[in-house]
Amino acid sequence: MNDWIAIGALALVGLLIPLGMMAVSYLLRPSVPETSKRATYESGEIPTGGTRIRFNIQYYMVALLFLVFDIETVLLFPWAVVYLDAVESDAVSLLEILGPMLLFVAILMVGLAWAWRTGAVQWARTPRQATSGSDRQ
Amino acid sequence: MVGEGATLPLQTDTVLLPERVGELTGLDQFGVGGELLAAFLAAFIVGNIMLAMTGVAGPWAKRKITAAFTDRIAVNRLGPAGLLIIVADSVRLLSKELIIPEDADRPAYDLAPIVIASSALLGFAVIPMGSGIHLADPEVGLAFVFAVAGIASIGLVMAGYASANKYSMLGGLRAVAQNVAYEIPLVVTGMSVVIFAGTLQMSAIVEAQAQTLVSLGGLDIPAWYALVNPFAFVLFLVANFAEVGRNPFDTPEAPTEIVAGYQTEYSSVYFVLIYLGEFIHIFLGGAIIATIFLGGPAGPVLPGIVWFIIKIWAVFFLTQWLRSAIPRVRIDQLIEIGWKGLLVLSFANLVITAVIVGLIA
């Protein structure tokens, strides 16, 4: 039997379980609409300002770095799968199997070192935090 | 070392659960329709085993373990050792009123709990649980399970953004920053196991670990990858704790800073689903660790499924232990540990593993 049929079946079950729980809950739960019950929670205070706040640029920087490294892991997987067979077959020398991967990882490591130096993986500080000498790195 | 002697078969011919169900119920005589129904029944069995173990027993065990660490008793009124609290809790949680914040972004707000819960459950499709409970065994098993576990990040961001709450927003951002930072060490460390096994197929990885590493006084120590490469095992454990958002990496829902993070605005069944999804994720992480580092369902005397459950619960116990013992890291420390520490160490591990395997084999 095809493996992906079974995986698809589990995906279906995985959807049906949450939906079933939601259906049961729909039958059980009360509904008592009141004013201000649905207000946005802000520790009991009246919410101020919008939700789309300005946030630290760092989140964006690490997301960009992630894209590079994630694609890189995808490219490394086929190499890792054939590595053992290639080593055991004696058809190619160890340098030929290992060399390109080492070079590839080395290039990425240079990239990481550059990102490290420019502070892309360092938590960004606001000018005020930087001058007040707070212990936050 | 591993891989000596016989080369590992790329495609093992184990009998998977859908086929067994098909034979047992006689559904395999009804062509494609029967096959589909058998697959569905098998998936239903696996889904419910995991649900019973994680969603039902998990929260109870969490309370008991935390209580033991802090010298309390915890639940003990309903049933033996308070076990019936699980039934009471599920009824209580499902019958709570659903309060949806007025500014919520509706379709995304409703979809997020389903994405979080069902993506975690899907990962168990390729996990060999022993005793023939193994739903599917595609050749890309390990890559599949990493990919599926990664879907939850989308659910977390959806929950955080759609709640229209500042705490949720920050929690969602933290969750995704953490998941992307630790996803790479996790996958790269997993890759060092692939170098040993020479395949991504879960059953073949488990089989490769059945070989004998050393014999100590007539006792065969199996070549579990946790013993073959303990450094990778520790790296994988740490990255896994960050990936499932447990201590010391529970920054996305740090209760003392941002209330409950992305789940602040969720109530009733939606909260249950997110909570359940987190628990299933812890157990999925445990299942991956058990499969690729602890020999999967292998073990003496007891049947495979029992060993598999023992190993998963050992990992779960460790997460709860850390929860009681280790303080939370700050978000800036979290980013730096991930990118400056684990990432570099995991690449070092990969390169060293490749070189050693290349020299020995």
UniProtKB/TrEMBL annotation, chain A:
Coiled-coil blocks: none
Transmembrane segments: 6-28, 59-82, 94-116
Example of a GO cellular component annotation carried by this entry: NADH dehydrogenase complex
Keywords: Membrane, Transmembrane, Transmembrane helix, Transport, Ubiquinone
Family: Belongs to the complex I subunit 3 family.
Top-level taxon of origin: Archaea
Keyword Lyase recorded: no
Matches recorded under Gene3D superfamilies: NADH:ubiquinone/plastoquinone oxidoreductase, chain 3
Protein name: NADH-ubiquinone/plastoquinone oxidoreductase chain 3
Molecular function as annotated in GO: NADH dehydrogenase (ubiquinone) activity
Subcellular location field: Membrane
From TrEMBL, chain B:
Cellular component terms (Gene Ontology): membrane
Keywords: Membrane, Transmembrane, Transmembrane helix
Molecular function as annotated in GO: NADH dehydrogenase activity
Subcellular location: Membrane
GO biological process terms, semicolon-separated: aerobic respiration
TM annotation in the entry: 36-61, 111-130, 142-164, 184-202, 223-242, 269-294, 301-322, 342-360
UniProt main location, coarse: membrane
InterPro entries attached to this UniProt entry: NADH_UbQ_OxRdtase_su1/FPO
Bilayer topology term: Multi-pass membrane protein
Name recorded for this polypeptide: NADH dehydrogenase (Quinone)
